[in-house]
Amino acid sequence: VQEPEEKKIALELLETEQAYVNRLHLLDQIFYTELMKEAKNGKTVPEEVVKMIFSNISSIYQFHAKFFLPELQKRMEDWNCNPRIGDVIQKLAPFLKMYSEYVKNFDKAVELITIWSEKSPPFQELIADIQKRKVCSNLTLQHHMLEPVQRIPRYELLLKDYVRKLPPESPDRDGAEKALEMIFMVAKHSNAAIAEMERLQNLWVVYQRLGLEDDIVDPSNELIKEGPIQKISTRNNSTSEKYLFLFNNMLLYCVPRVIQVGAEFQVHLRIDVDGMKVRELKDTQFPHTFLVSGKQRTLELQAR
Known about the structure:
This is FGD2 protein. This protein is 55% helix and 17% strand.
């Protein structure tokens, strides 16, 4: 007898979940536990560092091992009289928000492993020692750590496939569709968290280049565009190199600093976007010129 397609996918979900729980066990119960033990003995790295590397992996492991995997197993055992997984996945979805902390921390974690492996040979040796064990199947700690990052997209794909293969009259139709929507929202939530973190990091870098003038440091700002520009001086018919930063709320007109220490630019002028007008000029002597006028003042600029 040919198994129905949707059951095959549900079984694949169960099998990958089992493998995933083994991977989480390796991360939490072996890597984290042993590195933590050595850190406590003061032999390798500060305990704080180990905590920062593994973020909230323990909660993720406990959740999958003690709750989600057993629920899935139960479901697959009673499949013949109750062919559904949608309800279990609906229970799972809200907990997947825990992942955004882990995912957000991932790059930092990998960087910490690299930095401390160089600083502390005993730390590096312990990791290498664990990696040699059979349970690691010749893969690095970093490789295993990537697994939780990839798990939510995997749920999404499997569940999409499952919903596609469900017969129209399946008792799991409503449940599975609702579950898919929930998983989709969580995946979006975790991507949004990463995007927000990147935006803030980039913003911080820009503020440093500007010398952190306190009246412009605002975490809600968004950098839209930046680049060099020529300022036209009508007085003596010449141009000089300047630099613009356009944010959602202001245009910063800057001068590159000659001294390479500290900030890269000095903010000469700030024009609020509110009430700002831009007008192209037809100037034969200076092509690509435009006028920016705001409450603060008017500039005549030439683009490349």
